[in-house]
């Protein structure tokens, strides 16, 4: 073999060994997240932070180390900076090698084995593996939002008022020194069931780990604020707008209109940041359980994301049905009619399009942005709803269908504004021109109005104009 090929092969082998053993060179660790002054947004190391999350719920139990590295590297390239992960999905939670997380299915008795050999990762216990995952996420600039236990453990009695504090203490003391941690108390569960137990768990974690942010991950179409807004351990609110369609919810539907929840939480006092932590996933059936039901598409996941952020969310969490459960067909029992290998679906269209949201929000002063529906003079309902927000010298208005709408001007700085359209699908800009910043103006997005022909109107003070959306 030529010397150059030998060197290339050796480099590849060394890289794979490093991934398997956890011996990669240290990388800068993402700074801890804190709540920004004003109470609506987050900071990372004192700088504005836009949460672009992905749901990798079953990562710990279904991926080995090389697969985990592949997942994290891909999500980093796509612009994600948070991954939501379950610690205990069931009391029988194990690594992909079958090493259990708990002794006797008891959260009060984590299965910890000291003295693991870094060169033999198959000997690592569940918690060693989680340590490694958190470290590798940090190397990719990713924060790990950890759910201590799924709600089913509370319903089944394995997690209860007797052992919640001990389990919380174990987690806090083990992970409080990792800067890239966020805690998601709860776990797809009713906040008004086992409320005292969840409060004990949150309090215990916060007592020994006061410097990491924490929220509560509620069941679909509910909000952490409804039970826990004033809890001392709750730093930000999370909604789960859920997976039902307008037709499945009836006349009082709110799930698809996720902006309702965000707008309500924006007005709460004391002010706390809010995010939609589980909207409808790409490629999951409407309502979850009907295999023959229509499936949510990339256009739908874009709509959830843009509506939430325009309404005041500090970021957004995306999900893809096959990826969130790390499905391996033929080996794993699929949930919610998943049918594709997780690795194939990392490149689902919606996943690639989420970065367009982060890019636009980060391009303007983030901390001064406020939702302002008074900008839209002829708003519609459901898919024809226009969501708007603004800063001192800029304004955004998102139209999911690309229907024409009229906008009130004069609310941002400048005698005139430059206007352009920004595409959430591919990030391209279409210039409109410069117009007087007074009165009202009717705007016509490109293309024919229809669901998924979504565009963002971008207005900038002409004296500070960029000439395009970006």
UniProtKB/TrEMBL annotation:
Domain Apiosidase-like catalytic, chain residue ranges per copy: 39-367
SUPFAM superfamilies named among the record's database cross-references: (Trans)glycosidases
Any GO molecular function: hydrolase activity
Keyword Hydrolase assigned: yes
Top-level taxon in the UniProt lineage: Bacteria
Record flagged with keyword Heme: no
InterPro entries: Apiosidase-like_cat_dom, Collagen-bd_put, GH
Ranges where the Putative collagen-binding domain occurs: 370-460
Alphabetized UniProt keyword annotations: Hydrolase, Signal
Signal peptide coordinates: 1-25
Matching Pfam families: Apiosidase (PF13204), Collagen_bind_2 (PF12904)
Protein name: Glycoside hydrolase family 140 protein
Organism lineage string: Bacteria, Pseudomonadati, Pseudomonadota, Alphaproteobacteria, Sphingomonadales
């Amino acid at each position: 073999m030529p010397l150059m090929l030998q060197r290339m092969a050796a480099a590849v082998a060394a890289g794979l060994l490093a991934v398997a053993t956890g011996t990669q060179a240290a990388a800068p660790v993402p700074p801890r997240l804190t709540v920004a002054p004003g109470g609506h947004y987050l900071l990372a190391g004192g700088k504005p932070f836009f949460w672009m999350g992905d749901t990798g719920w079953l990562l710990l139990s279904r991926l080995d180390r090389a697969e985990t590295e592949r997942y994290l590297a891909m999500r980093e390239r796509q612009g994600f900076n948070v991954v939501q992960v379950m610690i205990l999905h069931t009391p029988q939670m194990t690594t992909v090698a079958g090493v259990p997380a708990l002794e006797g299915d008891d959260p009060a008795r984590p299965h910890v084995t000291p003295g693991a050999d870094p060169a033999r990762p198959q000997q690592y216990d569940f918690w060693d593996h989680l340590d490694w995952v958190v470290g590798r996420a940090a190397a990719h600039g990713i924060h790990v939002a950890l759910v201590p236990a799924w709600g089913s453990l509370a319903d089944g009695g394995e997690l209860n008022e007797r052992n919640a504090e001990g389990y919380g203490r174990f987690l806090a003391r083990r992970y409080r020194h990792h800067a890239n941690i966020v805690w998601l108390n709860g776990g797809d569960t009713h906040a008004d069931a086992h409320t005292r137990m969840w409060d004990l768990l949150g309090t215990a974690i916060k007592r020994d780990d006061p410097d990491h942010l924490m929220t509560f991950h509620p069941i679909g179409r509910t909000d952490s604020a409804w039970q826990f807004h004033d809890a001392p351990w709750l730093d930000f609110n999370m909604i789960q707008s859920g997976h039902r369609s307008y037709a499945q919810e009836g006349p009082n539907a709110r799930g698809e209109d996720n902006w309702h929840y965000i707008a309500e939480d924006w007005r709460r006092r004391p002010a706390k940041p809010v995010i939609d932590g589980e909207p409808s996933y790409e490629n999951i059936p409407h309502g979850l359980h009907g295999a023959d039901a229509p499936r949510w598409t990339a256009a739908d996941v874009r709509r959830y994301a843009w509506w939430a952020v325009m309404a005041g969310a500090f970021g957004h969490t995306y999900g893809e049905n096959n990826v969130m459960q790390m499905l391996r067909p033929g080996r794993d029992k699929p949930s919610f009619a998943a049918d594709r290998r997780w690795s194939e679906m990392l490149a689902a269209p919606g996943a690639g399009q989420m970065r367009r949201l982060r890019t636009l929000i980060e391009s303007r002063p983030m901390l001064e942005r406020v939702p302002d529906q008074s900008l839209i003079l002829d708003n519609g309902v459901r898919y024809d709803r226009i969501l708007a927000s603004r800063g001192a010298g800029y304004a955004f208005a998102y139209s999911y269908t690309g229907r024409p709408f009229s906008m009130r001007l004069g609310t941002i700085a400048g005698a005139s504004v430059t206007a352009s359209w920004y595409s959430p699908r591919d990030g391209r800009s279409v210039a409109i021109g410069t117009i007087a910043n007074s009165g009202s103006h009717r705007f016509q997005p490109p293309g024919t109005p229809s669901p998924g022909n979504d565009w963002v109107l971008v207005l900038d003070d002409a004296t500070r104009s960029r000439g395009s959306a970006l």
